[in-house]
Amino acid sequence: MNERVDQAELQNPEHGLPENFGAGWPGRLLFWLAVAFSTFQIVTAFGVPLDRTIAFGVTPLALAWAALAAGALFVGWAAARRRPVLDGLFAVVTLAITVGLVTKFPGGLPSQAVRTLHVGFLCLVGGGLLANHRSRTRATRSLGWALAVAGFLIGAYQWAFYDDLVARAGELTDADLYVGLALIALLFYLVARIMGPALVIVAGTFLAYCLLGQYLPAPLNHRGYGLEQVVEHMAFGTEGIYGTPVYVSSTYIFLFVLFGAFLERAGMIALFTDIAMSLFGSARGGPAKVAVFSSALMGTISGSGVANVVAVGQFTIPLMKRFGYKPAFAGGVEATASMGGQIMPPVMGAVAFIMAETIDVPYVEIVKAAIIPALLYYLSAFLAVHFEAGRRGLVGLPRGELPSAKAALRERWFLILPLAVLVYLLFAGYTPLFAGSVGLALTVTLILGGTIALGFGREAVRSIFYVTLGLIAAGALWVGVMLVLALVLVMVAASLLTRGGRDTLVACRNALADGARQALPVGLACAVVGLVIGTMTLTGVGTIFGNYVVSVGQNSLVASLVLTMVVSLILGMGIPTIPNYIITSSLAAPSLLTLGVPLIVSHMFVFYFGIMADLTPPVALACFAAAPIARESGFKISLEAIRIALPGFVVPYMAVYDPALMAQNTTGIGGPAFAAAVAYMCVKAAAAVFLWGAATSGFLRGPMRLWERAAAFLGALLLVVALPLTDQAGFLLGAAAVGAHVWRLRRVATRPA
Question: Subcellular localization, per the record (predicted)?
Fold first, then answer.
């Protein structure tokens, strides 16, 4: 029986709404508003100089208005012939809004205006989704749309009065005060309706502390702040709602979300799945290993664990169930593997971008620190499914039923080009914004060029075409964004004239809308968590918790680490990874730095357990995303996910005591000596993960006896503890446990019947 679940039928647990824009004309209107949102973000992220002359005195802005005028004439012509014009009308109107927004600042929008309009668009799309999917009557639907439009107008307020607000910074008018209050109230409403009450409760508590904290006993009290001062700090400037998280959301995050959306539309998921099936489908417990490997590959382009569960799990979870895995274990494998995507370079989800901005280090340094822990995380998941398959006697798929990796790569190898270029640019020292822009431009160009390439008969000629086109697109941004724009326009025109080209353009348009919808929970979370950051910068409350962590760490660093881990896990019970990281890193990471933990390691420690929080009950978003596909309780899936991911919990602790595990050189050695130290830590951590996985599953080459499991567990523990001679003892004890186990099974196998 085929249990594969259609992705369109699932609700996204990140926002509890279906993966579409709704039915009827409200759905089409919202769809085009999402397209306009993505278009606005691309224009502002690329920094397209709209007032620069292209040729003969013509500017991109003039071309945009001319194209809209032509579109309006076409809509009028179609209406006169009684043809459907609704889509065209919505397209012209919504895109005209985008062009109008950038016309006010043709040389480039100020960062503050980009941030406020970004939040305004988030409110518009979020409110529209609520109106289309949650409203039961015409009145509530109209009210929902009214709130959506109000949210957009609030965001446009600072765009419209930008110069005035800059001139009187710090002095609010009555209108400013009301707009600020309305913004906070509307964000609370949207986040509560879309993402649940937990984040609103946390942010509301911090906001209440700003207003009422002076009445608390010392050391929790502060000097007191008036309503006007709090609103000015939170809703204007860059310290509160429009702070670093929203800046990152409006630039890097949105661009990389679009990058992933375009690659998914181009067939990257199918490519990854075919490769994983070919490599691991026939191995012991093959379907589960396919889930782990394909989710790791998906993590390179999509940093959303929940999105990975929905995208990959609809195929892998039913496959695992069909071959004997229990539904809870199948869901737990997919949830665990998908959450690892947030620490899998190069994209690493939204948190990595926020981390790079927060601690002011190059993004590539975050990527370097994450590579080894990410591989160890997936090693632990891979071993867990391998041992479980051995314990239950599960075999792989027949070779004849598996796809060919060579055939898949031969057909869709060009999809890897954008990812390869992205990795190269990041490690070559370019900014994530530039690398993401090149990756997105290359992806769009290759998708549009796909239909043109079909006109070439021979595979070799098509390959040459793809490589040439890729090099032109990737190199265009070095010359200037105007060349990129010209190249894309040429490809669009060529697609209109080729067979299947219009379908490709429709796919690109749909990817723009999907990107805006997928960025919604990330953007709203970044906006609301700005209230928490604003409270810390205004009142200094973060130092209270920080001082407590430092006081605990003076007696025991392990106790401080455990305390930080527990805070991350507790916050993660109701808060997504991004606000969880922002809050916990603001509270605890500086304290860990004071206790001697290196800067990147302290933030990665918090980041790591913020991800693990999405596997812990009672919320466990990733597990509940897998629940409808596995047809099992999300709570049971969560328990299995924790068991599978348990060996990975030790990795951050090992990195704290020896930062070489995250490629951090704190000893002053260099060259081959440091490389040897990193290699040793990799071997040591892999051995600990292996022993811990065997001990928790109770299976190695066969069922393990209790003393063998205890010895393996103790050996892993000794490898984690950074004390004199513990490494040697751990290796010896682990080797003894494995050796005794293998020797015992050989004796049993050779014993005469």
Answer: Cell inner membrane
